[in-house]
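Appendix B.2, paired examples.
Example (i):
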Amino acid sequence: MDVSTVSALWDLVPLWYLWYLVPLCALVQTVRFAFADADFTLLWARMFGRKPEAELSGLVVWVTGASSGIGKELAYQLAGCGSRLILSARRLEELQRVKQQCVECFRLQEEDILVLQLDLLERDSFRSKTNAALQHFGHIDILINNAGRSQRSLCLETSDDVYQGLMELNFLGTISLTKQVLPHMMQRGTGGIVTISSVAGIIGAPLRGGYSASKHALQGFFNCLRTELTDYPKILISTVCPGPVQSNIVQNCFTEEVDKIMPKVEDQQYKMSTRSCVRLILLGIANRSKEMWISDQPVLLFCYLWQYAPTWAWFFTDVLGRRIVQNFKNGLIQSTLLSRGRRPFVLEKTKGQLKRDNGAEKRFSCIPKSLPWILRWGTSSVQELPGEVGPLSTYSLSIQTANLHQLILQGQHPSRVGAKQFLRAFHRSQARLIKEQLKTEPGDKETTK
């Protein structure tokens, strides 16, 4: 074989490598995405990018909505990075408590943290608040627009005052404060405006019509602003789109009327922790990300579907949204688009069947949280009991807990026998235990025949 033939074959070797390398890379990215909690750009920054401790140390950062939730955690982690802070919210006592925690736990002095009481609905005060911050620190490096309120109500049942309140607070208040701070950054030629938007600013989430509209408005405004500031490359305009995050925003959200509060707060255990979300936000700021998607699966997948495959996104939104709206109308507070919650059940006195009781305070959902989520998912299908039975509200916790422990001790764990078989055995055993409990219950003659 001559030299030219060997050289030609050698040139073909990388092509054979690529034949296997491309599918391998696709497989690796698919696995990464299955366990991802942020978009690929942010994941890359977490692995190979700059660290917040190095980039944010010594900077003056103004955080609105710093009394609780994401804003409070932002204050703590920024203090850990060595940033000087301006903390703003309506509740002055809570701000003072956050400041005291930052001073005690991190290497900050009292003068490194300025507390400014601020209400985004009082836009006339923004100029004086900005001047007070500039007078104290001399400049503002980063403004984090975090304050806002959410919503849980159907579009047609929500009053116009609620929509007006959401737009004035989430949109007009945010852009008005930005317009006061941004000229000083433009004068210095450097700075950053970071706005906490939401996944609801990308996708249309049911029960959040006004909230989603205000976040879509923020997305559009700051996308335009970013383009207008191309002559100032050192000024960062970044929007953060977190998914479900553990915070107090649900407790304070709007409902159908302005003065009406949420009767119950939805379960937040399935949501991303506030600490993890804030860490990703700071990583994005340190690496100058223009837009961040932060959420666990499958909400993150929904964001990519809306971006790259909107037809499929509409299909899944219609299917899941119908269930969410129906659950909400039936009194179930859990309203997240892709949560694992199912509609709870209770037992009533009926003629040979179990019925759903939407208004009951006691729910048929007392499964221990330490068990696999597939078990908690499947507890919505309850087997019918023959005859008339009484309410389960006084029996549910003890019966279900004892029943589950008994099945697990017998070796019928879902990881061994499969989820469907385990749930089938669980419901059969549960029905038997309920009947025995009701028959032996003293003083209740109407529960058995």
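Example (ii):
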Amino acid sequence: MSSSKFSLGVLVLLAFLMVLLSLVTILGNILVILAFILDRNLRHPSNYFFLNLAVSDFAVVLLMSLQEKGATIICGYYLK
């Protein structure tokens, strides 16, 4: 087992919080995108900025691997 500067309880808590944050981010961005698609009143030029932010944030969250995030915190280095 690799040595870590965190105890097992802290590692489990960090992993849970990372997964929870990722799920909340994905769900929130999906709701923003769906609201923009379904409600025509939101289709103003100023709201396209928020749609762009939601789409880009959604893509970043999906592209970021939870395993890499976990390995970074647990092992202390980035996987390459």
